[in-house]
Amino acid sequence: MAAEPIEDDAWRDGATDSHLAESLGDALQARARSGQPMRGFQLKRAALAGIDLVNHGSRSGYQLHDTDLYRADLQNAHLFALDLRGSSLMKADLRGTNLHCADLRDCNLLGIRLDGARLDNVIWDRQLLQERRGRERQRAGDSDAARQLFEEAEETYRNLRLHLEKAGLFEQAGIFFHREMVMRRLQMPRFSGKRLLSWLVDLFSGYGEKPLNVVLFSLGLIFVCGLLYFLVGVRHGDLPLRLALERGWLANLADLAGCLYFSVVTFTTLGYGDITPHGLARPIAALEAFAGSFTMALFVVVFVKKMTR
């Protein structure tokens, strides 16, 4: 028996909560297949378990924009490629749901239940809704509201990360872990030591998710220290290697290359001994050697963490 059609006003004013409750899923399926727009529907606590909103025979899915699905029951639903942009899925039950290729940008995902859901190729926001709103409140000077939104964003990122890890989607899980830690940092007092330390960990390694950050920091430190050695001078046997304006640019370039070589040797703590520091170059070399040992150990930890996934 075909589902009784529901008027547009009923979809948007929440009358569907009580109207045709048993066949609401069938009515929504029929609405989707009719090609009529689906926007701004009020489906709070709707019983939609097992609903099929897959646009069969088409590479693009149906659109269900700006819909309120607060605490909706969508267990084992088929939502392949469904465009849910702008919708609220707060505390919605999507256990066992097929969300493959679904578009969840601009959605409120706080408290969403995703146990056993298929999450392959879901289109996520680079920054979740709560994070964007929190940053807006922060720019407006409302620190209390911003902190509350950052807390909600942290909780949402953590929830999504855990479900993505269970699904074996470690690359996306790593991205959400990084955002989770950023949200935790933004809740700390602005000029506190903990926040500064957290920012440094993010800068150097992306909280263990960005090995390239460690490599770039290493190259930058080697280059900066090489320039400092070139300015203050080091010795290659009895010959000084340093900037000398009275000499030609080729000679200075050769000395700069020697200083960069010494910087690499110092950073990696190889210590061949063919070039030696003196004067102000000694504390620079000591600092670079210490930083190099720490940075190489950090790179190994971050790289192994990424590869063992």
From TrEMBL:
The chain crosses the membrane at residues 214-232, 253-272, 284-304. The keyword Membrane applies. Keywords: Membrane, Transmembrane, Transmembrane helix. This is Pentapeptide repeat-containing protein. It comes from Aquipseudomonas campi. The keyword NADP does not apply. Residues 253-308 form the Potassium channel domain. Pfam families: Ion_trans_2, Pentapeptide.
